[in-house]
Amino acid sequence: MLWAGFTAARFITHDAFEGRPPALTLMNITHELVTVLVMALIIGVWPPAGTV
Hints:
Layout: H1 2-18, H2 22-45
Helix pairs in contact: 1-2
């Protein structure tokens, strides 16, 4: 939800205004989605402090 609401919407708006090709916009928002998912995965599996 955060990715679609903040990242994808921002990229689509800015790239359309700058006249960038749709394929580049798609590549950029896909890269951001993968980045957010990897960060969420790392934070989700990281053990809380004091439990190790």
